Amino acid sequence: MGWGLLWGMLFLLGNGEQGVLVDRVIAVVGEEVLTESELQIEARVALAFREGGTVATTSLEPDLLSSLRDYVVNQLVVMIHARRLGALEVSEAKADELMGTFRGKFTSHVAYQAFLRRYGITEGTVRRILIRDFRNDIFVDSRLRASGDKSEVTSGAARSKAWDLWLDQMKRSVSIRLLGENQRLEVQ
Predict the structure, then answer these.
(1) pTM for this model (two decimals)
(2) Contact 79, 42 (CB under 8 A)
(3) Which one, 31, 41, 105, 174, has least CB within 10 Å?
(4) CB-based contacts of 148: which residues, under 8 Å, 6+ apart?
């Protein structure tokens, strides 16, 4: 068992036989551990970036959270492959631009700061997620362009099909374990 998995396992505090659940591992992708609290943060950041600050503060229904878990797992799979092949370095200027775009999803600076405080999210965490997703987007675009005729990959349906096939191949080369109904990590 690796240190990342060991540190990411269930944390129980308390005395005697009763404990208090602090966090739990919901996925392990390769060596990357995703806890429930990290998923909540990832979900809020993804919703804010794609749908705006107001949507990011709505309740996360189980179906939405499950879908966002799958999205984060996919991002981790792509990140692992991008890292293996030499991920693009993102300049500070580009990272600042991404952060500016993210902040712009909120009605005001006060609303942005309130969002961060409400969900216990640091700007460093937002920055890390945005940079990872940007790197992944560049990596995916370059790989899809390299994999076939440009005209085939530019249409929405062809691009979606190529992405699905490639993602399936990448997933098969990485160990993925998800928290199952029995509350144990299960190989996918």
Answers:
(1) 0.81
(2) no
(3) 31
(4) 162
Cα–Cα distances (Å) from 46 to 29, 50, 136, 167, 182, in that order, read 19, 6, 14, 19, 28
User: Which single residue is written with the structure tokens 């005395």?
Assistant: 15
pLDDT tens for 25-37 read 999 999 999 999 9
What is the SS3 assignment for 31? coil
Non-local (6+) Cβ contacts of 33 within 8 A are: 4, 5, 7, 8, 25, 27
Structure tokens at 38: 């990290």
Q: Which of 106-110, 148-152, 166-170 has the highest mean pLDDT?
A: 106-110
CA dist 102 and 106 (Å) reads 8
Q: Which of 162, 164, 174 lies closest to 76, judged by CA?
A: 174
pLDDT in tens, 96-112: 999 999 999 999 999 99
Average pLDDT, integer, range 121-149: 88
**Annotated domain spans of the chain:** 3-187
Q: Where are the alpha helices (DSSP H) in 15-122?
A: 36-51, 62-84, 92-103, 109-119
